[in-house]
Design a protein that fits this description.
This protein has 461 residues and is an alpha/beta fold. Helices cover 38% and strands 14% of the residues. The chain contains 16 helices and 14 strands. It is globular. The N terminus is likely disordered.
């Protein structure tokens, strides 16, 4: 085992526990018995279709003194009982799977616990949590693609991801990207170059147009066309709603800052995927996570791990209200984009892929066509009626609104926005759940009325 350079992802035992707890002495170094070694946090097959059940199957981590909440391991570095132990840790012989920790840039017990929750949530073998969603995406890309690598990606992506693929990676690493309409499977197939394309990347629900990707078909297409092509999906918009690994994807990335956090107070990300990939990303010599150091703070990991147990309840309420508002907005005559509406192009596709009981997502779009009209709508929704807040991001308990073309998609030029289908007046709404549904709807109606009155007065003048 001396040649091993990375550490296994698993549930750790206590290295300073008494011998009666399953440890044997080995030259005064506590080593876990083979029978005590953990299995990875893989969702049991019978529960794969329900992320909440997978989360509930995880072992509950208790605090140092038996508290119902786990303790926060805030240390940057860790002690060993004997000098020889450190050498064995640096060779990879002893690692976090046996509760041996070196330094929190490598592994931290609290962050690893959050990783186990994320792996259970997505039904993957392992997960590693990062300092941001972009850190998760960039680390995956840099691990899977070498210089002269190739990515095929959806033309409709979050602006930061689009900029990474369009500008940064080609300049720094000579990694190029071919952008395609992710709903045009023939175009996707033609763009994948056998033996060269490393990654097929797309968002499960595109930002901001809410186009739904056919994950099973795209995964099959990519694997059939290029045996070495990995399917990487951003699931930031649809945690709980979709389980990508079950649908055929290889890797799932998240901005945990959004729905999983739910409070818009932390920045965090995650990479969920095969154990072999995650271990390679933590390799001491070649691992992108290990060497670039996008480390999550243990206190942030603790905060997030306490929020995941009620993610399912929160997500259901986000989705329920989004569905109700989208239906009413459409009846009102608004140009609404929401996958839960039957006139959405991928409504039936999403219905066939989604985990039962979690709805169709917590975001909707109102297309005002012109940026000026979008700006007036958001002004009245925030300042006249208190329906929501003008802010980027999503997954907050209050409704958040932004005009995507001039905000979260501003990295795209006019031609790229047109290709992505982003209208200048597209207002993206992340629907919150504060107040009663009827109270918030009356606020929306009041804002629309004031906007219409203002428009009438403007036309008269």
């Amino acid at each position: 085992m001396a040649e091993t350079r990375s550490c296994e992802f698993g549930i750790s035992a206590k290295k300073r526990a008494a011998a009666a707890d399953g440890f044997e002495g080995d030259d005064d170094i506590f080593v876990a018995k083979k029978s005590m070694l953990p299995t990875l946090a893989v969702a049991p097959p019978s529960w794969e279709s329900d992320p909440a059940a997978s989360l509930a199957s995880l072992r509950h981590e208790f605090g140092e003194h038996g508290g119902v909440n786990m303790s926060i391991e805030a240390s940057a570095t860790f002690t060993v009982m004997e000098p020889e132990t450190m050498r064995r840790m640096f060779t990879g012989e002893l690692g976090p799977d046996r509760d041996f920790f070196i330094y929190s840039r490598h592994f931290n017990p609290t962050v690893l616990n959050l990783g186990r929750q994320m792996a259970a949530l997505e039904g993957t073998e392992a997960a590693y949590c990062t300092a941001s969603g972009m850190a998760a995406i960039s680390s995956v890309m840099l691990q899977l693609c070498s210089s002269d690598g190739h990515v095929v990606a959806s033309a409709t992506l979050y602006g930061g991801t689009h900029a990474l693929l369009t500008h940064f990676l080609p300049r720094i690493c000579n990694i190029t990207t071919t952008f395609v309409d992710i709903t045009d499977h023939e175009a996707v197939k033609n763009a994948i170059v056998q033996g060269r394309t490393n990654v097929l990347f797309f968002e499960s629900m595109s930002n901001p147009t809410l186009t739904v990707a056919n994950i099973p078909e795209l995964s099959k297409l990519a694997h059939d066309k290029g045996a070495t092509t990995m399917v990487v999906v951003d699931n930031t918009f649809s945690p709980m709603v979709l389980s990508h690994a079950r649908l055929g994807a290889d890797v799932v990335v998240h901005s945990i800052s959004k729905f999983i956090s739910g409070r818009a107070d932390v920045i965090a990300g995650a990479v969920c995927g095969p154990e072999s990939l995650l271990n390679s990303m933590m390799d001491l010599h070649q691992g992108s996570l290990m060497l670039l150091g996008p480390t999550m703070n243990a206190k942030v990991a603790f905060e997030l791990s306490e929020r995941i147990p009620h993610l399912g309840l929160r997500k259901k309420e986000h989705c329920l209200r989004a569905m109700e508002y989208a239906t009413r907005m459409k009846k009102m005559g608004q140009r609404v984009v929401y996958p839960g509406l039957e006139d959405h192009p991928q409504h039936h596709l999403l219905k066939s892929m989604a985990n039962k009981g979690y709805g169709f997502g917590g975001l909707l779009c109102v297309d005002m066509e012109l940026e000026e009209k979008a700006t007036r709508l958001m002004h009245h929704l925030q300042n006249s009626s208190q329906f929501g807040l003008i802010a980027v991001s999503l997954g907050y308990y209050e409704t958040l609104m932004s005009c995507s073309g001039s905000s979260t998609s501003s990295e795209l030029n006019s031609e790229e926005k047109a290709l992505a289908g982003t209208s200048p007046g597209l207002v993206r709404m992340s629907i919150g759940y504060t107040g009663t549904l009827e109270q918030k709807w009356s606020q929306f109606e009041r804002a629309i009325s004031r906007m219409e009155v203002g428009s009438t007065l403007f036309n008269k003048n």
